[in-house]
Each structure stands twice: as structure tokens, then as C-alpha cells.
Description:
The structure is a single chain. This protein is α/β, with parallel strands linked by helices. It has helices at about 15-25, 50-55, 70-80, 90-100, 120-125, 150-155, 165, 170-175, 185-195, 210-220, 230-235, 245-260, 290-300, 305-315, 330, 340-345, 355-370; strands at about 1-5, 35-40, 60-65, 85, 135-145, 180, 225, 240-245, 265-270, 275-285, 315-320. It is about 40% helix and about 15% strand. The longest helix has 16 residues, at about 355-370. The chain is globular. The model is unreliable at about 1-30 (pLDDT under 50). Pentane-1,5-diamine binds near residues 41, 89, 249 and 278.
Amino acid sequence: MTFKGVHGRPIAPGLAVAMAAAAALAAAPAAADGELHIYNWSDYIADDTIANFEAETGIDVTYDVFDSNEVLEGKLLAGNTGYDLVVPSGSFLERQITAGVFQPLDRSQLGNFNNLDTEILERVAAHDADNAHAIPYMWGTTGIGYNAEMVAERMPDAPVDSWDLIFKPENAALFADCGITVLDAPTELLGIALKYLGHDPRSTRGEGLDEAEALLTEIRPYIKYFHSSQYINDLANGDICIAVGWSGDVIIAADRAAEADNGVEIGYSIPREGTIIWFDLFAIPSDAPNVAEAHLFLDYLMRPEVVADITNYVFYANGNKASQAFIDEEILTDPTIYPPPEVLANLFADNVKPPRVTRTQNRIWTRIKTGT
Ligand code: N2P
């Protein structure tokens, strides 16, 4: 296995790799000598998932990571990525399917497909009719990660369950010294700002984007950085106090702090005004060099125990119903990971916007980030 990613935990320690290689030899793999190139989000797989797959199949996996749908989309639209499997979120996947980026899946090679959750399949079919091109992987929310002590010190009654915490400039100003960070995810942040302001975040006409820009521009002076993975370690180490972040990633930060026993206590909230719910899906690019191996990996991922192990490791809900029997009780009953119906009802999924609106979103985002 080659691991080139810069973010996240190492995939496997040397010993595990050596053991996996030995096991691969001993097991006389069924599909020997293949290759597979995977491009996934950082911090989004268990430490032994890839090594176990390599040991079982003899396939040599190259595993790279990203932390932005826009970065992934740029590569996919340019073509010739060399990747066999990539993981866009729903609305990005939808636009990419329209652009001809993905090939249909061959269900005859996906015997474990029936393990998937039909409710989730139905939801993501809004992006991929008949679930023809993609397999739902993990899903989650974009919310508020916070250092309980640092926040309480600066604002004893801080509304940590509300976007008021950062969208009211007088609040944001209180936390500038300890560090507010925001995901570099324009469609998500602008959607959240629209929802907060009472506009329809799914409008395809771009109404309210000017107000969303004004809102974010006003709090811009209090934002330390825009980045979509750095905040995990920074939260865990007590180097920032508030991160607009992804559910599982914030919980990973909490877990790392607990493991380090460094006295840092991290919370995650789904703000009561509502937020985005997203679904990340595995799909095979049309020009993928190793299509059979990609199907083998997808079928492996749909084994209940395999994907349950990943959920247990990264704290994201997955789209595999049968895996729930193997998910830690603590995770299954955590309302920030599997939100109850009344919370779910207040979440919105991103949708594809016409190119004109997407261009406006990107221009606004550049202005906000650069402070111009
Ligand atoms: C994984 C983050 C993926 C969530 N670390 C964004 N879709």
C-alpha cells in the first residue's frame, strides 16, 4: 500500500502492513496482483480497512486523501485522475454524473448491495437516479465544535447550540482571541448562512446570497482561518476554541483529546436553527483503469462488519443498515451522530445550483476569505 495523504491518522503502522503482507501470501488471494487507486476524504476510514482488503485480495491499494469537494471536482472535470474510486458529496456527485464523469455500477459484482439502508438509498437517489452510479458511504452534519471550558470562560451563557454563537458579531468578537475556524466549503457555509437568515438555502435563483455575504463579512475579522481538516488537531490540542466543522471530525477531535488526557473537553452541536445534512458516496470515474478491483472494494465496504468498524473509528453514521448490529451502542445512540427525527426534520441537503449561482457563490467565497 502507498499512502500519500498529508492529513489524518496514518493508515497502518509498519507491523500491521508486514502482517497484512504475510497474510496475503498465506491466503493465496482470489484476485491477485491487481491495483486500485482510491481518493477519499481525510480521516474517513479505519486504520486497518485498506490493509485488511489488501491481505484478503492481494490487490495493491494506493490511497490518497482530500478535504474539499471543489478540489475533487476540479480533478474529475479535468479527467485522467488515475483514480478508480472517489467520494463526492451528493450535490457534487449529481453535477458530475451529468458531466459524464462516472460509469454505471455493475450490480452483479455487488452482492452486498442489499445490506444498504433503503431510506438512505432513496434519499441519495435524488442525486443519482436508481442509485445507478454510486454507493452511499458515510453521512453527517456541519455544525459547531467547541472547547467547553474556553468558551464558558469568555461567555458563561454561550449559546453553543445556536449559530448565534458565531453569526452575531458581538459574540464572535469574544472568541477571536482563542480562535474561531471555519470549513473551506463555500456551498455549505453559504447555505447555512441563508438558512440562518430565513432564506431558502435550496433556491436555484440565488436569493439572499448578498445578505449571506454581508453576514459572513461582518464576522470575518474574528475568523482565524478557513480550512477543512486542520481544525481536528487544533481543537484536540486546545489551540482553537470554536470550529465550524463536520460532525464526525469534531468527535474525532474530542476522542483524540480524551486519549491524550490533556484536559481538553470538546463538544459538538447541531445548531437549533438547522444546518446541512450531507451524504458522501463512492463512485467509479468513467476512465478508471481498474474497474473490477473497484467493484471488489465496494463490495468489501458493504460488508456490515467492515463498514461498522469504520463508523466506530470515524464517528460518522453510514448508509448500511445491516452494519448497525456491529456499531458501538454509544455511537448508535449519540444524537449528534444519528440525530432523532425532530432534529433531522430541520436539516437540509445541498442541491445543484445553476452555473450562474455557483459562480456567484465562488466569487463571494473568495471575497470573504481574502477579506476584500
Ligand atoms: C471526513 C470529512 C468528510 C465530510 N473527514 C465531508 N463531506
